[in-house]
Structures are given as structure tokens and as C-alpha cells.
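Working notes for the structural subgroup meeting. M.R. asked for a predicted model of this chain before we commit to crystallization trials. I am recording the input and output together here so anyone reviewing the notebook later can reproduce the run.

Input as submitted:
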Amino acid sequence: MSKIETSVKAYPPNEKLLGEHQYFFEYLLISPSYWLAHKKIGLKQKVSKAEEPQDFNAVLSLYKKVGDIYSCGFGEWWDSVGTNLFDLSLKTNQIWMSIDVSKSRQQLMQDFSKLLDRLELDRKNHHASKKLKLEVNKIRLTSLDQRLKLVHEKAMFSGGQFKKESLWVLGKSVRLGSKWTKHIRLDSKKSSTNAPVRTYLSILVSKNLKDALTIAENAARGRFPSLSPLPSTCKFDYQMIQQQQFLKNSQTWKELLEVGKNEKKINAILDPSNSRKKIKRADTGDDLESDHQKSIEVKLKTKKPSRRSMTEYESLLEAEDRQLKVKLGS
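Returned structure, recorded in C-alpha cell form:
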């Protein structure tokens, strides 16, 4: 929307890169569906029908807009594709206005009426636009960051070959936002004291790895950030993610060496959207744990009062508390 040359002028909100845009790119990188689309369109490789998710056409459609994200960094992709991909100019329902008070009331009312007509036209064009728009929900940058780190960390451990009961190691390694990470060390041996903590953290990590997959697969369909259920049965390709991480790290080091000690350019490479600055500390993401507990509470409330289904989670927490109190009291 351009400035209107009348006594009543409207100005659009500032167009700026948000942290969510950067995470959209990062989650597409780990999406198994988007990788299949890249193999089919970008690499011209054959993809069997058995590999394709039910709604693969939606992923292919997005790929044609977003393109190859595997051979470039976020900054390069954003400058060439991202800025034209997202709906930025009409991100909010508010505008700045300036009024020429030297004009008559009648003139101001006429110009304001014309402005409203123009805004209504912009709104209709906006709804008809095929540009991507970020979802508005309670998914925070902190949770996006930590879930992504869990996936990367698992990929770096032997290409994702990880026993389910050992997932607590990932939570501890990435400093997952949970009070229980403080009660266990990476080098600790399994004991009756830390067994409940290991079990609980493994459950928490497993749940958030599944959430990361859901977010990545929704991103591959143009919805971000979103935890909406999907028909896709695709799983993370941890070996592919591991390879992409190695390539990305090599590319980042090359770019850092080229800019030398220029702090502004270094920050632009490491954190183009300044999203990391908005996350005060890596271990403040308690929302991951609270989200998990809320989901358990919802299940307990919606299910019939079967003792077996209701006490599994409660007994785990009770065992944790009991063991920790014994440890702290000794």
C-alpha cells in the first residue's frame, strides 16, 4: 500500500524480517516431505508412490514457490526468494495516519472516506493473494528453537541411531527447558535414584521430537508455525539432516572467514533475523514441559477414570519426587 496524496495519508507497517521466517526455513530443511519434493523437482530423481504422502501435491506446490533451500544459506535465500514469498506489508490490521489539520472538516471527511475505500480494496486483494502468511498462535520462538536443536542433536549422534530410553541425553545436552535436567549429569550411571528422571526426560524429548516433525511437515505445506495433525506418515531422515548440518557448518565457516572481524556481518551470518537475541537463555523454554504436562492433563480429563491409564504419569512424577527428596535429604 503506497502513500495516499490527500489531506489524510496512510502508511503501512514496517516490513521486517521476523524470527519465524528464519525458523520456517530451518524447519523446511528437516522436513522429510520437502526433501522428497526436492528429490523429485530439484534433483530430478524418481520418487515412488509409496514414499509420497497423501497430500504430496501441496508440498510440490510449495516447493515451486520456495525452491532449493539446500544449496544456499538463509540470508541468500531470503534476499532472492523469501522477501517476495511472505505477506509482509499487511501483516497487522493497523496503519499509521497523518492528517492535514489546515484542511476543512468536510475535506478531511471526504478524504478519509476515500482512504477507507482504498483500504477495503487492499483487504480484498490481500485475501486473494497467494503469498504465505505466518500463523498466529501460542508457539513461541523458544519452543521452535529447542525442538529444532533436539532434531539436530539426535542427527549428530550416529545419524539418529538412538535408543528410546536414552533420549534423556538429548534433553540434557541441549539444556532442554525442564527442571529435571538439573538433577542428572550426562556422565551419570543409571541408578534407582536417577531412573525416574531419565524416564521422564526421555518421554519429554520423544514428545517434542514428534512435535518438531509435525511443525516441519506443516511448514512443507505452507503452514507455519503449526502443530495441526497431518495425514503424512513420513519420518525424519536423520542421516540426511546430519549431512545437511555438516554442509551448512562448512558454508558458515567459509562466510565467517570472508567477513573477518566485522561484528555486524558476523551477526548477520549467524542470526539474520536476530531471533536468538529474543531467546534470553537456552534453558528458559519451560513451555515445552508445561505443554507436555497440559497434554497429559487433557488426556486424563477426557479419558474414562481407568486406574491404569490415569496413574501411569502420576506414579512417574511421584517416584521422581520421592527419589529426589531422598537424595536431597541425604
